[in-house]
Amino acid sequence: MLTFGGWSGVEHLADLHRYDGWADAWTELLPAPASGPAARAGHAAAWDPDSMSMFVFAGVQNSSGMLSYDRTIHKYSPLKNAWSSVQNGESPPARADHAMLLDPSSTTLFTFGGYNSSYLRGSSPIMP
Prior knowledge:
Blueprint: E1 2-7, E2 12-20, E3 25-29, E4 40-41, E5 44-48, E6 53-63, E7 66-77, E8 82-86, E9 99-103, E10 108-112, E11 123-126
Antiparallel strand pairs: 1-2, 2-3, 4-6, 5-6, 6-7, 7-8, 9-10, 10-11
């Protein structure tokens, strides 16, 4: 299991951790510092078994003391221990606190709902 970022109660986080169920142990992963998403909370993640990677979409981030909603898709590859940004044309509106899943048969990410100063309804496909 991989976890990325979140809210500590004091600050937005950009840390990445892996849980090993066999060893019952957490390990912090340290990909290249500037390649990953900015610290954020309220984002969603989905695992792609074909590419063996985790997609992270949207969330709230703190840029120079200003909170903003993000609409970027990031991809983390444990095999390369590296982040990359996914260019997909027109992604859905920026948001936080939404649900997301990947349909492995079509390699399509879907997001549902969320909030970006108003509640969002419906689902949107995202093609990574």
